[in-house]
Amino acid sequence: MKLELRGITKRFGSLTANDAISITIEPGEIHALLGENGAGKSTLMNVLFGLYQADEGQILLDDVPVAFSGPGDAMRAGVGMVHQHFMLIPVFTVAENVMLGHEPTRFGGALDLPEARKRVREISARFGFDLDPDALVEDLPVGIQQRVEIIKALSRDAKVLVLDEPTAVLTPQETDELMTIMKQLAAAGTSIVFITHKLREVQAVANRITIIRLGRVVGSAEPTASSQELASLMVGREVDLTVDKKPLEAGADSFVVTDLTHFDVNGVTLLDDVSFTIRKGEILAIAGVQGNGQTELTEAILGLRHRVKGSITLNGRELLGSTPRHILESGVGYVPEDRKKDGLVGEFTIAENLMLDRSFAGPFTNRLSVDFGHRDDFARSAIGEFDIRTPGPTTAAGRLSGGNQQKVVLARELSRDLALFIASQPTRGVDVGSIEFIHERIVSVRDSGVPVLIVSTELDEVLALADRIAVMYRGRIIDIVPANTPRAKLGQLMAGVAS
């Protein structure tokens, strides 16, 4: 089925999320929409799927204009969508999830579950999915759950399939398997819209690439285009995608975590005997699929978690049991994974955010009052040093772009004497240009002799920054390996296959 979007415009108040976007996807084509988070890709697909209504423009299927008032209309017209966050019910079986919303019935209105099982088996056999219709979704690995989502769409005769950031929670092996599935679907005539910000994946699977920046189509490219060419189109300037690091000159063990265990209120183990060390001047990167204990680990280190046992020492001083304020004052810099929730106060100015966690004593306060002159001078200096794009220090942090918000957090955390630097998902949701800058600053901290702990689900980022890599799976570190470990080996570890 041919899909055409003509002049799609979608506004949210004064924000224009999509600005007259026109794209054509041919039958059997894998068409990649490449752009950073916030570029407008997902908004555009939500318009296509009937979740949003366009303010201007047309959608055409096989040259016939269509209008969708909701996802039901889109699915009936042959458009299916696999969302970044799966729309599955964990306690239902595969067949029950697939039939949900268009349940086959027998005489008298009884649900025809055997028919749903048959449908799952037929589609699984056609594409080699190897899915058990009676398996509970909550017992399936993430990559297999994604196949369930694809079968849901195909069971409704989807001729156009939208995959929204489909590899965000997959291991490298699962990503490769998905690429194979996409090619099989395209060969069978399905038109695929592939939304992503990962250059490697676009080059591997796309037939054509459309680049979106700030809600507009800024160019198109063939998959043979280089990563530098694609990145430049995404951010509008030349970008250096390599991370330059000096050879490792690590010192003595500085940060030591021993037998760290953490339970939730129900006694469920979230961290299971986690142990590792980081030397001065070394970057240890934690790799793994999101949800395997990375958040709990960093928050336990910062004193933000209760019911934690074990030991956490920094330069010989025990931190476990200390308050977050004491830990930060011990020289720990911390970039949380969710900058809007945990890293910034959006209503506060940039200057006010830059003094958070440091307002208890000099140089920002003098006795019981804020030294506004010093605060504002410091803010202006940080804005220049960290290239924060803003009208000035009195701008509310919530009005900045994602990359500039992250730079505010980095400026605050890196502007004091550090004994340890922790950055969780340091480049999530920022553009390629900001990634380049953030990586340079992280490496400069390492080169200054500070131990660095990076947590990232982006394997390319882990490989670029790390001196050693610790892989987490279900709350445990199952191995710590050199930074030159092959991607395939890391993928096995991320899937729980220990050495």
UniProtKB/TrEMBL annotation:
<keyword id="KW-0067">ATP-binding</keyword>
<keyword id="KW-1278">Translocase</keyword>
<feature type="domain" description="ABC transporter">
    <location>
        <begin position="255"/>
        <end position="499"/>
    </location>
</feature>
<dbReference type="InterPro" id="IPR027417">
    <property type="entry name" value="P-loop_NTPase"/>
</dbReference>
<keyword id="KW-0677">Repeat</keyword>
<feature type="domain" description="ABC transporter">
    <location>
        <begin position="3"/>
        <end position="239"/>
    </location>
</feature>
<dbReference type="InterPro" id="IPR050107">
    <property type="entry name" value="ABC_carbohydrate_import_ATPase"/>
</dbReference>
<dbReference type="GO" id="GO:0005886">
    <property type="term" value="C:plasma membrane"/>
</dbReference>
<keyword id="KW-0472">Membrane</keyword>
<dbReference type="InterPro" id="IPR003593">
    <property type="entry name" value="AAA+_ATPase"/>
</dbReference>
<keyword id="KW-0813">Transport</keyword>
<protein>
    <submittedName>
        <fullName>ABC transporter ATP-binding protein</fullName>
    </submittedName>
</protein>
<dbReference type="Pfam" id="PF00005">
    <property type="entry name" value="ABC_tran"/>
</dbReference>
<dbReference type="GO" id="GO:0016887">
    <property type="term" value="F:ATP hydrolysis activity"/>
</dbReference>
<dbReference type="GO" id="GO:0005524">
    <property type="term" value="F:ATP binding"/>
</dbReference>
<keyword id="KW-0547">Nucleotide-binding</keyword>
<dbReference type="InterPro" id="IPR017871">
    <property type="entry name" value="ABC_transporter-like_CS"/>
</dbReference>
<dbReference type="InterPro" id="IPR003439">
    <property type="entry name" value="ABC_transporter-like_ATP-bd"/>
</dbReference>
<keyword id="KW-1003">Cell membrane</keyword>
